[in-house]
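Hello,

I think I submitted the guanosine-5'-monophosphate job twice by accident. Can you confirm which output corresponds to this input? Input:
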Amino acid sequence: MFSSKGMLLVISGPSGVGKGTLVRMLREMDPELKLSVSVTTRGPRENEQDGKDYFFISREEFETMVGQGRLLEHACVHGNYYGTPRDYVDRMIGEGKNVLLEIDPQGAKQVIENQQDCVSVFILPPSWKELKERLTGRHTENPEQVEIRLRNAREEVKTLRMYRYAVTNMNGEEGKQAAAEALYAILKAERSSTARLSVEIPEE
Ligand code: 5GP
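Support: Only one job matched these inputs. Its output is below.
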């Protein structure tokens, strides 16, 4: 009687806020959620798999995909290029599946502007102090890079109202759990949106 259109869920937020962890938790809560695997020009890290974590491609291949309009959005993040392949997203949405994008705020802006029925969530840190500690604590950036990311974060938070929702990723296991549950609640509520439903009403 009812069929529901697939939904595009965009999760974004500043570097270091914990998007990756929340996405992992959300996918455990909803194994039916399809994660879009991005293309990137950065090299694979240890224990990253091509085709699972990212499609690792050359700068030339990336430029070709952009030129052919094969990316739904793309951005240069900390010196590397990233993009969302359009065909996978279109195919999954067409099949009525819900698709998750975990992307930076530049890419999120493009998706929000071009796909008005997408559901967008901005992840906030509990405080600026905490964001700095998370960026410093992961030891993947030097102090200068941490400062650049914090400066970018200030600009990104200014764009908060472009998103439909904001969720704060609080400290500790409980904080993370609460944030993941908030994301799951958004997903469930949006899935029940009448805008996404088509209803068949038989003739008498
Ligand atoms: P990392 O290199 O640490 O995996 O990711 C760096 C940043 O790039 C993260 O903020 C991540 O969300 C973002 N990112 C990953 N894939 C994409 C994508 O397809 N498009 C955009 N715009 N950002 C992405």
